[in-house]
Amino acid sequence: MDIIYQRGQATAAEVMENMPNPPSYSAVRALLKVLEEKGNLRHDQNGTRYVFRPTMPRRQATRSALKRMLEVFFNNSTEAAVAALLDLSHSRLTEEEWERLFTLLERAKKEGS
Q1: Burial code of 35-57, b = ≥16 C-beta within 10 A, e = fewer?
Q2: Which has the closest alpha carbon to 37: 18, 52, 16, 15?
Q3: What is the DSSP annotation of 23-62?
Q4: CA nearest 8: which of 42, 55, 44, 54?
Q5: pLDDT over threshold 80, residue 97
Q6: Which of 7, 24, 47, 56 could be joined to 60 by an S-S link, Cβ 3.0–4.6 Å?
Q7: Digit-coded pLDDT (tens) for 61-77
């Protein structure tokens, strides 16, 4: 999906060309078919080639994926998800990133009150 979002559209061959360690062509085609069946992609036919495009803007897809991740892995707990992310990355955050996080948390706290 990332490759298709970056390019705007892509064929299976173009997806493969942009993957660091691509599987076989048939595996890429199968994955694209699954993504299409799930409603994440659609295709147009250009000669014998299928050109795949996302069905929703990247921001919307990101929100949907995050919502699903919260449900599946964190029992709908935003606090547990944030704690897990901070546990993974707290030593790599810059002072500016910490400040931005504090600002976002304060804003969310005010809006939730």
Answers
A1: beeeebbebeeeeeebbbebeee
A2: 52
A3: --HHHHHHHHHHHHHTTSEEEEEETTEEEEEESS-HHHHH
A4: 54
A5: yes
A6: 56
A7: 999 989 999 999 999 99
Number of neighbours of residue 60 by Cβ within 10 angstroms: 11
Q: Could you give the CA distance from residue 57 to residue 20 in angstroms, rounded to a whole number?
A: 24
Query: Which amino acid is present at 52?
Result: F
**What was the pLDDT predicted at 113?**
64
Question: What domains does the chain contain, in order, with CATH numbers?
Answer: 2-54 (1.10.10.10), 66-112 (no CATH)
* pLDDT score for 112: 82
Question: Is the predicted pLDDT of residue 47 greater than 70, yes or no?
Answer: yes
Query: CA 74 to CA 98: how far, in whole Å?
Result: 23
